[in-house]
Specification:
Number of helices: 9
Structural class: alpha/beta
Keywords: Signal
GO molecular function, one term: phosphatidylcholine lysophospholipase activity
CATH class: Alpha Beta
Protein name: Acyl-CoA thioesterase-1
InterPro entries: Ester_Hydrolysis_Enzymes, SGNH_hydro, SGNH_hydro_sf
Mean pLDDT: 89
Organism: Fontimonas thermophila
Strand order of the largest sheet: 2-1-3-4-5
Length: 217
């Protein structure tokens, strides 16, 4: 399976839509009340589509934090099919309810697949970052990618948008967290789109490389 084929993973988000909201919800994955909160604002890649919720990378993040002695409580507010606009609309209530210390923003794939103008994508990301910061949370952006058959100029501009916003807002950026599994067909479910339960640890590793040093500051 080629890298470009595997990048089509984001296409599934359009099919999933908000039906998975009940599964992903906004319930904490673990931890204790009063602990600093890590809020994950994502789409189907973070909502554990097609696998048990406790096997997804977000649940594995909670387990790793606990095992490493971190007190943080992870709240998974990911919804399959989510866009940056949808995440932006939901964010104020999530910030008010959970008062997170960190907001992990894994959004944008659906925007690219729908051909959203890149200026709008970047503006939505900036507003998500600003809202998080105003609420006292520290945002972390995730780099997303789309296949080049959407047009090489658009695909490259899309990829670069995340680094641009991260640089402008001094926000940490997680490099494309499917890179390690993108060329391995066994890392995906039968649809060839969604990562398997066995691939979730590699996804977490990609996130952890950026997140863990931040937690030490």
């Amino acid at each position: 399976m080629s890298l470009l084929s595997c990048l089509r993973i984001a296409a599934s988000c359009i099919l999933c839509l908000c039906a998975a909201a009940a599964q992903a919800g906004t319930a904490p994955s673990g931890g204790t009340a009063g602990a600093p909160v890590i809020l994950v604002l994502g789409d189907s890649l973070s909502a554990a589509y097609g696998i048990a919720l406790d096997k997804g990378w977000v649940a594995l993040l909670q387990a790793r934090l606990s095992a490493a002695g971190y007190p943080h409580r992870v709240v998974n507010a990911s919804v399959s099919g989510e866009t940056t606009a949808g995440g932006l609309a939901r964010l104020p209530a999530l910030l008010d309810r959970h008062k997170p210390q960190w907001v992990l923003v894994e959004l944008g794939g659906n925007d690219g697949l729908r051909g959203l103008p890149l200026t709008q994508l970047r503006d939505n990301l900036r507003r998500i970052v600003a809202l998080s910061q105003t609420a006292g949370a520290r945002p972390v952006l995730f780099e997303m990618r789309i296949p080049s058959n959407y047009g090489p100029d658009y695909a490259e501009g899309f990829r670069a948008s995340f680094a641009t916003v991260a640089r402008e807002t001094a926000t940490p950026l997680v490099p494309f967290f499917l890179a390690a599994i993108a060329t391995d067909p066994t890392a995906f479910q039968e649809d060839g789109i969604h990562p398997t339960a066995g691939a979730q640890a590699a996804m977490l590793d990609a996130v952890w490389a950026t997140l863990q040093p931040l937690l030490e500051r």
